[in-house]
Design brief:
heterodimer; A: 10 helices; globular
Chain lengths: 245, 378
């Protein structure tokens, strides 16, 4: 046990610091020690930074990566701990925009723009819509006081820890095999002929080509599921002619 | 990058920024004058000759006016909202060409961000953030009218984004690119008959309508409908913060004018005076002027529409988006797909579009008539 802890302290330290920060920030009545939580949170972020630093690139790119990543993490923490639901939705928007920045840094402009349109432009707007309709008079009891702060944060960080540990193991294995990719084409299958890029197609065309060759079944199934959901929504919607509106 | 490149880059950003902000002030004057003429009034005529200094007077008044802040508001969001509206409207202009574009070093580019592969998508992504200004402004100002206006605006903008995106799909398929410069240059290469309006007239109409709805202009300004909601989401705003909402709206319709001209009306191309071959001295100025004239025509059309078509009812507005424009845009995309797949002559797209439009009209009238007869029978 002790040896395991000393072996993995660089993973455990940021998790512990982050947990204390989120636990302190959870809404419980009027008094929250924001300053203390902020110190713990910053310490946790720094601890993560020293261990999980990405392979260093050009200075400007590193600065952008660290800014976007820090914005995403801080925004995420504030989104779940803010007791005003409107602010929580706005923090969610900030998280989405920061993650889109990360997509852009990894040369995925299509994914980035599509995420901004769908999430920031439509889904979070719908959240704000619902919140503005539901909360006419002040914030509700359940917004001001978290019901099980300790259990909730503990289970959340346990999950995060397991994920990070697995990713770390996986990344280490893949690096040992000479590649850094999480996903690899299985050795037995040949690549789809249509998806093999013969020339540089640009981001949009390669996304389209990949969607309709490599992932054609997934795309078709997703389309079918969406169609079924649309039909279901139309069936469930109240109608004036049937008298249930 | 050399110093020369930096100077060109800064100029390419600064010139359109200042021209647009200045032009917006005079667009407001033009709108007031046009409204006055259409209603048989005189309009603003006191400040300067023919009222030409009126925008200056308005600007000074906006800046010097008392900052009114209603009580019990969410101060941070209240101040942030006009900023978001202005920022997103100006930011979207980054990928819009405003002249004969080029990406060679040392040449004035006539676009702020040249060679953006996903130019149109960027435009829609930034434009879709515009609604935050309206929602937050309406919600934060602690007023039921404002909140109702914000709710309407969010439903409207989210709905009209779908026909907006689907109407340009036809053009994207025809050009094989989402880059606005590429789409424009392809039309210019093919001359006057290469303008996309000859192939996609229906899509141009749908795009224009949806973009008007996105920018909350009359007849789509349900979010600030005076008779029901005082001023809608900006009821509680005054002085410069109100001016920033107005500025955001005008920058938005200016961008709409540029994009419509570049996507459907051949950008800076005009037969004889500004073609791909024209290389006489000062050709660039003529090209920019041609593009600006097209944009001006679109803007005047928008302002004339304001007093021509009355405001929709809210269910009519949503019905227009979901029952008319989305099906029409889908059929239009299907038509373009068939033309591309079977290699038909694109010349037949114009009659095809008209046929779709007429069919939709007939179907609409028939279903309305049968609906009426059903109601009469019941």
């Amino acid at each position: 046990m002790t040896t395991w802890i000393t072996e993995h302290w660089r993973l455990l330290l940021p998790l512990a610091l982050g947990w204390v920060c989120v636990w302190l920030l959870m809404p419980r009545g009027p008094h929250r020690s924001r300053a203390l939580a902020g110190i713990f949170g910053l310490a946790g972020l720094l601890a993560v930074k020293f261990y999980w630093l990405p392979p260093s690139g050009p200075l400007l790119q590193d600065i952008f990566f660290l800014t976007f990543a820090a914005m995403a993490i801080i925004g995420g923490v504030l989104m779940i701990t803010d007791h005003n639901p409107v602010y929580a939705a706005l923090w969610f928007a900030i998280v989405t925009l920061a993650v889109c920045g990360l997509f852009l840094l990894n040369s995925a402009p299509f994914l980035s723009a599509a995420t901004v349109i769908v999430y920031a432009g439509a889904i979070i707007v719908t959240f704000l819509f619902v919140i503005a309709l539901a909360q006419q008079s002040g914030s509700a009891m359940y917004d001001r006081r978290a019901s099980h702060p300790t259990l909730a944060t503990l289970s959340g960080f346990l999950l995060l820890g397991c994920l990070m540990f697995t990713l770390q193991e996986w990344g280490g294995q893949a690096a040992a095999e000479g590649g850094n990719a999480f996903l690899k084409v299985p050795a037995g299958t040949t690549a789809n002929l249509g998806s093999v890029a013969t020339e540089d197609l640009g981001s949009l065309r390669s996304v389209g080509r990949s969607l309709f060759t490599d992932y054609v079944y997934a795309v078709e199934i997703a389309g079918t599921v969406l169609l079924i959901a649309t039909i279901g929504a139309i069936c469930m919607a109240p109608r004036r002619s049937q008298g249930n509106l | 990058m050399t110093l020369n490149d930096w100077i060109i880059l800064l100029l390419a950003m600064a010139i359109p920024m200042h021209v647009i902000l200045g032009a917006c002030a005079y667009l407001i004057l033009l709108e007031r004058k046009l409204s006055a003429w259409m209603q048989d009034r005189v309009g603003p005529n006191r400040a300067g000759p023919m009222g030409l200094l009126q925008p200056l007077a308005d600007g000074i008044k906006f800046i010097l006016k008392e900052e009114m802040m209603p009580g019990h508001i969410n101060k941070f969001l209240y101040v942030l909202a006009p900023g978001i509206t202005c920022f997103t409207a100006l930011f979207a202009f980054a990928v819009v060409p405003y002249g004969p574009t080029s990406s060679e070093p040392g040449v004035f580019p006539f676009i702020i961000a040249p060679n953006v592969d996903l130019g149109l998508l960027f435009l829609f992504a930034v434009g879709s953030l515009n609604v935050y200004g309206i929602i937050l402004g309406g919600w934060a100002s602690n007023n039921k009218y404002s909140a109702l206006g914000a709710l309407r605006a969010s439903a409207q903008v989210v709905s009209y984004e779908i026909p907006l995106g689907m109407s340009v799909l036809g053009v994207i398929l025809l050009a094989g690119s989402m880059n606005i410069e590429t789409i424009m240059n392809q039309q210019i290469e093919h001359g006057f008959m290469g303008w996309n309006i000859w192939y996609q007239p229906l899509a141009a109409l749908l795009f224009f309508t949806a973009a008007m709805a996105e920018s909350n202009r009359l007849p789509f300004d349900l979010a600030e409908c005076e008779q029901e909601l005082v001023g809608g989401f900006h009821t509680e705003y005054s002085s410069m913060k109100f001016a920033m909402f107005a500025l955001g709206e005008y920058v938005h319709i200016t961008t709409l004018g540029f994009v419509l001209s570049c996507l459907y009306f051949g950008g800076w191309h005009f037969p004889w005076i500004a073609t791909a071959e024209s290389a006489y001295p000062g050709a660039w100025a003529v090209k920019v002027l041609v593009l600006l004239t097209k944009v001006f025509a679109v803007l005047v059309l928008i302002q004339l529409l304001r007093w021509t078509i009355p405001r929709f009812r809210f269910d009519q507005l949503m019905g227009l988006a979901w029952k008319v424009m989305i099906p029409l845009a889908t059929v239009n995309v299907l038509m373009v797909m068939c033309f591309k797949q079977f290699g038909w002559d694109p010349m037949w797209m114009l009659p095809g579009s008209l046929a779709i439009f007429i069919c939709a009209g007939v179907v609409g009238v028939q279903s309305a008539r049968s609906g009426r007869s059903l109601a009469a029978a019941a």
